[in-house]
């Protein structure tokens, strides 16, 4: 889906790593939550409390999930992060992304 309909947008930005990673929260009538944002080149580590779908819309990055090897996405791609995990990113060009928070199983 290239656009969201009938949503609430939280105006305040989520800012990480001195502004090198930013996003805005989108809330759906169904209770679903997503963030959409930009990551500038750099190396980052994030922790999750909820399962996440990371949809890369543009750019190039490598990601490493706990216990896995590094994988690369250039252009568009998706990866999933389990709940209560830490993952690493090596962003090589500006990355446009959408993160969907999924129900924990």
Q: Briefly, what is this?
A:
With 105 residues, this protein is mainly beta. Helices cover 0% and strands 61% of the residues.
3D architecture notes:
The structure is a single chain. The protein has a single domain, classed as Jelly Rolls (Sandwich). Helices cover 0% and strands 61% of the residues. The chain contains no helices and 11 strands. Strands 1, 2, 3, 4, 6, 9 and 11 form a 7-stranded antiparallel beta sheet that branches. A 4-stranded antiparallel beta sheet has the order 5-10-7-8, with no helix packed on it. It is globular and about 35 Å long.
Q: Which short descriptors sum up this protein?
A:
single chain; 105 residues; mainly beta; Jelly Rolls; seven-stranded antiparallel sheet; four-stranded antiparallel sheet
SSE layout and pairing:
Layout (H helix, E strand, L loop, with lengths): L6 E3 L4 E3 L4 E8 L4 E7 L2 E6 L3 E8 L1 E6 L5 E4 L2 E5 L4 E6 L3 E8 L3
Antiparallel strand pairs: 1-3, 2-3, 3-4, 4-11, 5-10, 6-9, 6-11, 7-8, 7-10
Helix fraction bin: under 10%
Biggest beta-sheet profile: 7 strands, antiparallel
**What value does the Rg take, in angstroms?**
13 Å
Shape: globular
Catalogue the unreliable spans. none
Number of strands: 11
Q: What is the beta-strand fraction?
A: over 45%
Helix count equals 0
Mean pLDDT: 96
CATH architecture name? Sandwich
Overall tally of domains:
1
CATH class categorisation: Mainly Beta
CATH superfamily: Jelly Rolls
Structural class: mainly beta
N→C terminal distance: 24 Å
CATH T-level topology: Jelly Rolls
Topology as H/E string? Answer: EEEEEEEEEEE
Family: Belongs to the nucleoside phosphorylase PpnP family.
Function: Catalyzes the phosphorolysis of diverse nucleosides, yielding D-ribose 1-phosphate and the respective free bases. Can use uridine, adenosine, guanosine, cytidine, thymidine, inosine and xanthosine as substrates. Also catalyzes the reverse reactions.
EC number: 2.4.2.1, 2.4.2.2
Catalytic activity: xanthosine + phosphate = alpha-D-ribose 1-phosphate + xanthine; guanosine + phosphate = alpha-D-ribose 1-phosphate + guanine; uridine + phosphate = alpha-D-ribose 1-phosphate + uracil; inosine + phosphate = alpha-D-ribose 1-phosphate + hypoxanthine
């Amino acid at each position: 889906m290239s656009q969201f309909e009938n949503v609430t947008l939280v105006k305040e930005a989520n800012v990480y790593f001195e502004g090198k990673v930013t996003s805005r929260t989108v809330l759906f009538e169904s209770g679903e939550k997503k963030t959409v944002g930009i990551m500038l080149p750099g190396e980052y580590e994030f922790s999750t409390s909820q399962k996440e779908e990371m949809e890369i819309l543009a750019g190039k990055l490598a990601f490493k999930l706990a216990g896995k090897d590094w994988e690369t996405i250039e252009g568009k791609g998706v990866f999933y992060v389990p709940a209560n995990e830490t993952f690493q990113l090596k962003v090589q060009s500006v990355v446009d992304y959408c993160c969907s928070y999924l129900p924990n199983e």
